[in-house]
Amino acid sequence: MQALLFDQSVQRIADETTGPITYQPDVISPALAARWFTALHEQVAWHGGTRMMYERMVDVPRLYSHYAIDDPLLPAVLGTALAVVKEQVQAPFNSIDLNLYRDEHDSVAPHNDKLHELVVHQPIVLLSLGATRTMIIRRKMPPHLKTELALEAGSLLLMGWNAQLHYDHGIPKLQQPVGPRISLAFRVRPHATGSWGVRAEGSDK
């Protein structure tokens, strides 16, 4: 299922016991990543949203979209991206969530995926396009080990289903200016549909 586990260029952040979580840079070239970013930035119908936080409604600090794999309106770039991902990770992906981080003010809080909306033992794979942003991966149980991982354009991050039980992950806001980033999250859902509401980086939160 997870060919990335056997690639010598892959950085292993968590093992099979609590993960796996692996990171592979340069899955596609910087030039191709830039073309895909431009196409998706222009073609996708991006949405905003709100959520309850601290007893008040606040704007979700990023834009998002979603496509089921069999959606007739699936942009061609996403179909090509899916083929690239499946060359690296053998899984029956049926859902792609997109998140657009417009600048340094956009973020996602530490979280894990909701397991009831994922097929058991199937991985989550994130493909990054655009500016590099740092993901914080933190183990839930003591000693709360933390990894700061720079997600570069053209890279893949794989998270095993069981990693959601042991780790939180998030992308913090930054103090310094940074350009926009698009994240593509490939998942295997029990029932893929065309509308999923607000999506976070590797999560439903």
What does this structure look like?
This protein is an alpha+beta fold. The chain has one domain (3-48, 58-187): Alpha-ketoglutarate-dependent dioxygenase AlkB-like (Jelly Rolls, Sandwich). It is built from 3 helices and 13 strands, in the order ββαβββαββββββαββ. The strands form 3 sheets. Strands 1-2-11-8-13-6-5 form a 7-stranded antiparallel β-sheet. Strands 7-12-9-10 form a 4-stranded antiparallel β-sheet. The longest helix is centred in the first third of the chain and has 14 residues, at 30-43. The protein is globular. The protein starts with 10 loop residues before the first strand and ends in an 18-residue tail after the last strand.
List keywords for this structure.
205 residues, alpha+beta, Jelly Rolls, 7-stranded antiparallel beta sheet, 4-stranded antiparallel beta sheet, 15% helix, 34% strand, globular
Question: Which architecture name does CATH use?
Answer: Sandwich
The total number of structural domains is: 1
Rg to the nearest angstrom?
A: 16 Å
CATH class: Mainly Beta
CATH fold call? Jelly Rolls
CATH superfamily: Alpha-ketoglutarate-dependent dioxygenase AlkB-like
Main sheet makeup: 7 strands, antiparallel
Report the total helices.
Answer: 3
Write the layout of secondary structure elements.
Elements (H helix, E strand, L loop, with lengths): L10 E4 L6 E4 L5 H14 L6 E4 L2 E4 L3 E6 L7 H13 L6 E7 L6 E4 L12 E7 L2 E7 L6 E6 L4 E4 L3 H4 E5 L9 E7 L18
